[in-house]
Design brief:
alpha/beta; about 20% strand; glycoprotein
Length: about 675
């Protein structure tokens, strides 16, 4: 009788076990492998720090080898001592403290295998400053020796070092998710599961062992930093005309910036406020009376690659020397003066509405400075001021004008900035230099107003200018606001109406990182090899500086065969419009590089290239994928326990089977 009860009990246990498995299967049913993977892994949105190379080595971040890095997530502020490899979460206000400890504490550093940087506007508002660039950015290119001068007092120089572990800046949503995970791990110290971060930041140069630009270009595991600059003449230059060429006033701005995190390079104040100001100036002058009759030629140039060794301005000057197609119609000898619009977005900081004119020399720039004062007088706004920069400064601040001054020390030029002796931008070359925290549109409108009228006065060559003529030059404040939304935010971002009037952008969120040169450099590049922002700038300038073409009905771009004709807005409807405009792309990449037979090579230093010796020749490593995900893993001790339990269950199953067999045999004998 006891044997019968035991057998019935075992049958009930097995039936209940099968039912529980069946119910579990119903709850956790998956339609496909991706469904299963999605339930197991949480994809994390973020912005990676990537591996960059130069002639002498590496900077930036990468997994140390060919494999992914997997480690538990922990918080830096609670992780005083690490006993196992960990992925540390850190707030931006502790970023420099963490990297300082990694440099000074070898035992702590040995256990840090990845870093996750938190995002959040509340953190930014409480910061006194954060700049991973040097205190004198690109001092090696300065036309003077004063490397100890601090233009950027908050600079830490962290972005110029190499790190053999991955670093990710988290999005706002991912920051919240990872904070919960880190807290959960802290509470699970005695638990058998832990949440880990899985970093896939394997760089091709690391896998191949090509640790500098020359070797990685040779092995084709990297590409050179660069892109396309744009220049445009107002009014268009009649290349075939027999008239004597006019002296040129060159107006310059930059469209690229740098950051510790590749795809989070915003640069609101430095330098995009200057770019927006330049675009607003072109718009205002294109509508002004008498521009065609000015005595001097206005030429606007927007350079890229300036944050990485002044690639754009240096290549522009080399193309001028070589009289290439990219600068057809422009002569270096005719450039009379250069006006650069630098960082102007903080010109109204703390109710101080003052801009500063940094000049190459007092005597060479008297005409420009005088025109600026006359322009200020015509604005009838006494609160806006432009002062000469302090004489205690060692020279020009970091700017494209340095390239021109290195080329010709007698260059007449002025850089308009929102600072005097040190950057007012406390977030220079960081992901925190964004909108709306770091700039205001009123300052950009004011700077553009001063520049537009100054150029008109200067290009009139000391002629008596009627007040009525200057009063027709007004900055469109609505355009400035629109450009801020298009170029500095994801909403609306490059999906804004203004940008879509000219191009079909590849992404909504703008990034002002220079990128890499794709394909063969050309003055007429394939549009897919040109970034969204340079394509927009080209179309905008070509449109604003143009005069109507006689071939208005021609198919574009093939029908734009007349002298000086170009096709604008071709991306929007596939047709475009033919206009007469002197607007050109200029390749922007190191003057130490040469593209030949589909490969890049490093050229020996040319003594005539005054900045070439200091050129690091920046390249960016190739990669297959960059991913960050989080999932739960079990402790190895738990795995051991499961193994032992499995063995136990197997033994018990054998015993139960033997007992059941004996019971059945006995029952059959009775019958």
């Amino acid at each position: 009788m006891d044997d019968t009860k035991l057998f019935v009990f075992l049958l009930c246990f097995i039936a209940q076990f099968c039912l529980s498995i069946s119910a579990s299967d119903q709850v956790n049913s998956f339609q496909s492998v991706p469904d299963l993977e999605k339930s197991m892994y949480m994809a994390i949105d973020g912005y990676p720090c990537v591996r960059l190379l130069n002639l002498s080595g590496e900077i930036g971040c990468s997994n140390p080898g060919r494999a992914n890095i997997v480690a538990p997530v922990a918080r830096f502020k609670t992780a005083n001592k690490l006993v196992e490899p960990s992925a540390l979460m850190v707030s931006i206000d502790q970023f420099e403290e963490l990297f300082g400890r990694l440099s000074n504490d070898a035992d702590f550093s040995r256990h840090v295998v990845g870093i996750l940087v938190e995002s959040g506007s509340q953190l930014q508002n409480g910061l006194k400053g954060f700049s991973p660039d040097k205190k004198f950015p690109q001092a090696e290119f300065a036309p003077y020796r004063s490397g100890s001068f601090e233009w950027n007092p908050t600079g830490s120089g962290l972005m110029w070092k190499a790190y053999n572990f991955p670093v990710f800046l988290l999005s706002n949503s991912s920051t919240s998710a990872l904070q919960e995970i880190a807290l959960r791990n802290e509470k699970r110290k005695k638990s058998y599961t832990v949440d880990v971060a899985d970093f896939n930041l394997v760089m091709q140069t690391t896998k191949s062992g090509t640790r500098d630009s020359e070797s990685c270009l040779r092995e084709q595991t990297c590409l050179p930093l660069g892109g396309y600059s744009v220049w445009s003449a107002l009014p268009p230059i009649a290349i075939s005309s027999s008239e004597k060429a006019k002296p040129v006033i060159l107006i310059v701005a930059s469209m690229d910036t740098a950051s510790f995190f590749r795809d989070k390079s915003i640069g609101a104040d430095s330098p995009i406020s200057g770019l927006i100001s330049l675009l607003a100036v072109v718009d205002a002058l294109s509508r002004a009376d008498g521009v065609k009759g000015l005595d001097k030629q206005l030429v606007f140039a927007v350079f890229t690659g300036e944050a990485w060794g002044y690639l754009g301005s240096r290549r522009f000057l080399l193309e001028l020397d070589q009289h290439s197609d990219a600068v057809s119609g422009l002569d270096l000898a005719l450039i009379e003066t250069v006006l650069e619009i630098g960082s102007v977005g903080k010109g109204f900081a703390q109710d101080d509405k003052t801009f500063f004119a940094h000049s190459t020399s007092e005597t060479a720039t008297n005409g420009m400075l005088s025109a600026i004062q006359d322009a200020l007088g015509s604005l009838n706004n006494q609160s806006i001021k432009v002062s000469r920069a302090s004489k205690s400064n060692p020279g020009l601040p970091p700017s494209s004008l340095m390239s021109f001054l290195k080329k010709n020390p007698k260059t007449s030029g002025v850089v308009l900035e929102d600072f005097d002796t040190a950057f007012t931008n406390k977030f220079y070359h960081s992901h925190l230099d964004d909108l709306p925290v770091n700039i205001n549109s009123s300052a950009i409108v004011a700077a553009a107003s001063v520049v537009a009228r100054s150029l008109y006065i200067l290009a009139s060559d000391k002629k008596e200018i009627k007040t009525s003529a200057l009063n027709t030059i007004n900055i469109n404040a609505s355009l400035v606001e629109e450009l801020l939304g298009c170029l500095l935010s994801c909403e609306p971002g490059l999906s804004c109406e203004l940008v879509n009037r000219y191009i079909a952008p590849s992404a909504s969120c703008p990034s002002h990182y220079v990128g890499v040169v794709l394909g063969e450099p050309s003055s007429q590049p394939y549009p897919g090899n040109v970034g969204d922002v340079p394509r927009f700038v080209w179309n905008f300038l070509a449109d604003k500086t143009a005069i109507p073409s006689k071939n208005m009905s021609s198919a574009c771009p093939k029908g734009c065969s007349g002298t000086g004709e170009v096709c604008v807005k071709a991306e929007t409807d596939g047709k475009g419009v033919c206009v007469i405009s002197t607007t050109r792309y200029v390749p922007a990449y190191s003057t130490r590089l040469k593209y030949e037979s589909d490969t890049w090579g490093v050229l020996p230093h040319n003594s005539s290239d005054t900045m070439g010796e200091a050129d690091p020749v920046w390249t960016e490593s190739n990669w297959e994928t960059i991913k960050l995900r989080v999932y739960t893993v079990q402790d190895t001790r738990f795995d051991t326990w499961v193994l032992l339990l499995g063995i136990t269950v197997t033994v018990l199953s054998y015993i139960i089977t033997a007992m059941a067999k004996a019971f059945i045999t006995k029952a059959l004998k009775r019958d």
